[in-house]
Amino acid sequence: MISYEEAGRLLGLAAARDQRTVGDADLLAWHADLNAATLTYRDAEAAITRFYAIEMASLQPDQRRRVTTPDVISIARKIRNERLENFIYEPPPGDHDPHYLKRLRGQLEATASGNTTPPTRPALTSSPTAPTRALLSSVGRRIPAEDDTPTERPPIQRPGPLGRQCPKCSAAIGRPCRTPGGKERPPHPARRTASTPRHPEEETA
């Protein structure tokens, strides 16, 4: 809970920055709003500092405004969430913890309120090591099977005259023959002859 004295102190911090006039109604409103949001004095003070030192400082003078209790509540919740980013639950000695939820809530609150410093994680180096670079170089490549050897596909055989290139008009396989003017026409006789299978006795004759 934030006391009336602490609410007045927070209003004094805001007035020192925006030169507002503080009255009894302001004190009552701030005390009611901040306690309804269950803020602590520490979080509210940090929120006011961030509001003026960071958020308002990044704006043009004609865009700046005075802090309000919704600003303080919103920023304070954001600060608490930031403190929980690296939260790691610390279990008691041993494997059994009959009061897990109670202990977890206590550690979460202590970390969010700033009473406990979150653990620091090792920072990444500026460049990956040689073994890491070797592993990264294989990312995205397909790993072939042991018997996965490339084989050439046999050419597709088509029956009939279109299965051969025309010796008359040079029409490609699968394409119709054409007249000298470029119009499609039936296969040339030479193409039909070339596509007709020959009997073995004809080949040895």
Based on DSSP secondary structure assignment, what is the total number of beta strands?
A: 2
Strand content: under 5%
Low-pLDDT ranges? none
Order of helices and strands: HHHHHHEEHH
The average pLDDT is 81
Shape: elongated
The helical percent reads 40-55%
Q: Main beta sheet: strand number and arrangement?
A: 2 strands, antiparallel
Structural class call reads mainly alpha
Biased composition (Polar residues): 111-130
Organism: Streptomyces bangladeshensis
Pfam families: Phage_zn_bind_8
Protein name: DNA-binding phage zinc finger domain-containing protein
Describe this structure in words.
With 205 residues, this protein is mainly alpha-helical. Helix content is 44%, strand content 2%. Strands 1-2 form a two-stranded antiparallel ribbon. A hairpin with a 5-residue loop joins strand 1 (177-178) and strand 2. Helix 3 packs across helix 4 (69-83). Residues 111-205 are annotated as: Disordered. It comes from Streptomyces bangladeshensis. It holds the Pfam family Phage_zn_bind_8. Residues 111-130 have a biased composition (Polar residues).
SSE blueprint:
Layout: H1 4-18, H2 24-36, H3 41-55, H4 69-83, H5 100-112, H6 130-136, E1 177-178, E2 184-185, H7 189-195, H8 200-204
Compact summary:
Helix content is 44%, strand content 2%. It has 205 residues and is mainly alpha-helical. A hairpin with a 5-residue loop joins β1 and β2 (184-185).
